[in-house]
Design a protein that fits this description.
The chain is mainly α. It is built from 10 helices and 2 strands.
Length: 207
Amino acid sequence: MSNMYELLKNGLVDFVSLITDRYLEIGLDEIDTMIIIKLKKATDSGLIDSKALSSGMSLTETELGDRIVSLVKNQYIDLLENKDDKIICSFDLVYKRLASIVDKNSDNNENQEAETEIRKIATFLQHNLSKNISSTELEVVKHWIDVDKYAYKDIQDATLKCLQNKKASIKYIDAILRKSDKRSNNSIKTDQDIDQLFRKMYGKLKG
């Protein structure tokens, strides 16, 4: 289950503020949103009363009841019977809907940031290696960002070392990064220099 769902369920995120901001994205209108908010507050206080719920709204008690039934049928809220044979209102379904929207937007933001970083690195490499980056090499760059989580500064430093050693290639930069990555279980713990590592991983160097 998503982190946002758990935060909502445990009351660590302001449910009222979130649903007020995002109700249109989960398919609610203003009236149903207000009903859910009133139901949530009444449930939290343990005092659910139809007259109190309809107070301040342009709905009769009958119309309010119809709206609540519709919210249950459309899987925004649920009505459950507890061990004392009392009907309680569950908000798990609307929590999940809100969490899904928030998580999706978060993923999109992370993807956009990653794509921006990849373009930045590709531009840096093209400039410093004086060559266009092939599609295969671009996949290596994507792996650095999406999987290896290398910082831009690390890639810069590895590129400069590559140029100093007159080994202008993405594969050689990758070898430098992997050797210096202390998180990797494949880190070389011997005194092999970078050229030996590169030969081991990618075969004999050209030139």
